[in-house]
Amino acid sequence: MEHVLKVVKEEEEEEEEEEEEEEEEEEEEEEEEEEEEEARAAAAAAAAAAAAAAAAEEEGEGEEEEEEEEEEEEEEEEEEEEEEEEEEEEEEEEEARAAAAAAAAEEEEEEEEEEEEEEEEEEEEEEEEEDFCV
């Protein structure tokens, strides 16, 4: 009988050991699954961070490009304004030259008229002198 009890006890101990081993294996599997889940979560977080960084970089580049375009537009506008000012100055100078030329021509015409008048007066005086002398 003792032998039977001993055998039963040994069987029970073996069953307990097997159950413990199974529980340990299950725990190890659960731990592995948890570690895998954590690794996946970490990878997802890293991917999200990388995507956010890429988006921020792209946005930064977009803003830089936008600023450069605005600066170029401003420079073009300034150049256009300068060209317009230069054209206006040239037109004013041309108008001033034309006015000066017209004034010079008018003055020359007046001088010619004065000379003609003087010549006529001299001729009249000469005629009067001749008439007087005769």
SSE topology sketch:
Layout: H1 2-133
Biased composition (Low complexity): 41-55
Region (Disordered): 1-134
Biased composition (Acidic residues): 10-38, 56-95, 105-134
Verbal overview:
The chain is mainly alpha-helical. 99% of the residues lie in helices and 0% in strands. The chain contains 1 helix and no strands. The N and C termini lie far apart (196 Å). The model has no long low-confidence stretch (mean pLDDT 88). Residues 41-55 have a biased composition (Low complexity). Residues 1-134 are annotated as: Disordered. Residues 10-38, 56-95, 105-134 have a biased composition (Acidic residues).
Annotation keywords:
134 residues, single chain, mainly alpha
In short, what is this structure?
This protein is an all-alpha fold. The chain is built from one helix and no strands. The longest helix has about 130 residues.
